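Key result, reporting period 2: structure in, sequence out.
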């Protein structure tokens, strides 16, 4: 049934329900008071968005169950909670017990969705094993690849601070250079640590794009649309959607637009760096 035209909508919707239930229950386990503040409907809608963004990737890659679970979970962690953790360090987001409760709930939910996606969106064949992935990684690992990863990290630094200074109208400073200085001066990290963390985020994103490009063989624009949308939904849109009532509307619009530009620019650059010719 999940493979019929109705199943195209039923499977992501079911994943949305699974995402919302898992996240709220886990959050209730870690922080019962914080769980009461969550809007289940918004969590459900965020899960549906994640389900629809995962579907174009999960359904067309013929990986074995263990490989699929590893890759889907890794995708959700790098593009989602773990990647956002690095960016929150740059912004100086308070790391109070409530923040860590949400982080742990989202990270464990990513593992649950990794398993649920393989049940609701099973690939028609199971050919790609974890061993195959590791052999390809070992064969392709060289100094050129490491250089490309570092270039992607540097590009993320430019994108993160450049786009934020250029497009963020909520900043106090007026000039571009003054806005850069304002961001660099934000506590608690100094500017070297912020640059390093932004670079690490870019490298991790590039590594995941490299891994996905091994198995998701499509044209550049199709890869950009599918992987870029997945990264944007997991890292920017779904978290904003889930916390819609807790964020000021103008700030929400600014951050979503800046995140959209930054995500697609970085993903597009990484795809271009690691693209493979279609056979």
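The corresponding designed sequence is given below.
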């Amino acid at each position: 049934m999940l493979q019929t035209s109705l199943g195209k909508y039923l499977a992501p919707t079911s994943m949305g329900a699974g995402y919302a239930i898992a996240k709220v229950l886990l959050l209730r386990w870690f922080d019962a008071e914080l769980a009461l503040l969550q809007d289940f409907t918004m969590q459900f809608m965020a899960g549906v968005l994640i389900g629809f963004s995962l579907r174009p990737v999960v359904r067309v890659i013929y990986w074995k169950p263990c490989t699929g679970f590893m890759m889907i979970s890794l995708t959700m962690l790098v593009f989602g909670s773990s990647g956002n953790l690095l960016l929150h360090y740059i912004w100086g987001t308070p790391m109070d017990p409530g923040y860590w409760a949400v982080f742990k709930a989202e990270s464990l939910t990513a593992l649950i969705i990794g398993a649920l996606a393989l049940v609701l969106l099973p690939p028609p064949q199971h050919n790609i094993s974890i061993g195959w992935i590791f052999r390809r990684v070992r064969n392709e690992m060289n100094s050129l690849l490491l250089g490309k990863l570092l270039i992607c990290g540097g590009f993320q630094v430019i994108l993160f601070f450049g786009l934020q200074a250029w497009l963020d109208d909520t900043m106090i400073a007026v000039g571009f250079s003054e806005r850069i200085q304002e961001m660099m001066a934000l506590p608690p990290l100094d500017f070297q640590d912020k640059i390093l963390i932004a670079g690490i985020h870019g490298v991790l994103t590039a590594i995941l794009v490299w891994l996905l490009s091994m198995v998701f063989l499509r044209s550049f624009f199709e890869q950009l649309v599918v992987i870029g949308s997945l990264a944007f939904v997991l890292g920017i849109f779904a978290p904003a959607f889930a916390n819609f009532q807790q964020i000021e509307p103008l700030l929400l619009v600014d951050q979503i637009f800046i995140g959209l530009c930054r995500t697609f620019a970085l993903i597009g650059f990484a795809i271009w760096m690691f693209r493979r010719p279609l056979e």
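Residues 232 and 263 are 6 Å apart (CA to CA). The radius of gyration is 19 Å. This case is discussed further under Risks and Mitigation.
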